[in-house]
Structure formats: C-alpha cells, structure tokens
Prior knowledge:
Layout: H1 2-21, E1 40-42, E2 63-65, E3 68-72, E4 75-79, E5 82-84, E6 92-94, E7 97-100, E8 106-109, E9 112-114, E10 120-121
Antiparallel strand pairs: 1-8, 2-5, 3-4, 6-9, 7-8, 9-10
Amino acid sequence: MATDRVKAIAIAGLGLACLTGCGSTLPTPSTTLHSGDGFTLVPFPPPVARVEFVSPQADPSDVWLDGSWEWASQQWGWRSGRWEAPPSADARYAPGTCVRSPNGPLYFYPGRWYRADGTAVLAKKDVE
C-alpha cells in the first residue's frame, strides 16, 4: 500500500516537473492577417516545414519568427527561423501562408510585418 502511494507521488511530481519545465517562454510577435495585396500566384503548395533549433536570443527586445517556405525564382526556398526586432512597438506579424481562391488558383503571401494602420512594412529578404 505504501509502495503505491510512493509511486503515485513520484508520478505526480514527474508530471508537475514536465508541466513547469517544458513550458515555452519563447517571445513571439503579435500576429495579424495579410492584407489583400502582396501575393504571388504559385503552381503548387510548399513542402512541410523543417525542424529547426532556436538560437540564443541576442537582444531582449527581439521576437522569434519561425522558419518558413517562400516562393523565389520559380521554386520554394526555405527561410530559416530567426530572431528579429519588430519594426515598431505597434507592429504585427503575418506569417507566410498559401490561400486557394474559390475558382482554383493558389496564392502565396510571404511573412511580413504590418503597421497598426494595416500598411505593410518593407523588410529584407533572406531566402536560401
């Protein structure tokens, strides 16, 4: 009987350790949806995302942007995840996404920052 109680306490402690030790504290940006412009017609969707390791954060104000596929030179290219400073305090990030229109064509919207008023912030490209 005492052995069962010790096992139960050990399992509960292990579960609590996993819940508190495995939580994510990765700073990510506030997100938004893409506006109606800035898309590219693509012939097929991107491959599945790659697994990446998060590098150490260089500046405490930086946020983590996951790696993603981007359409470049008639093919998909992987843009690695990275730490990036938001362009302004009220900026929101719209991750890259593909959208199929009701009549069939597939459109790609690259990940980009938007100001609070919805206008896109131009950023450097870094596709490998």
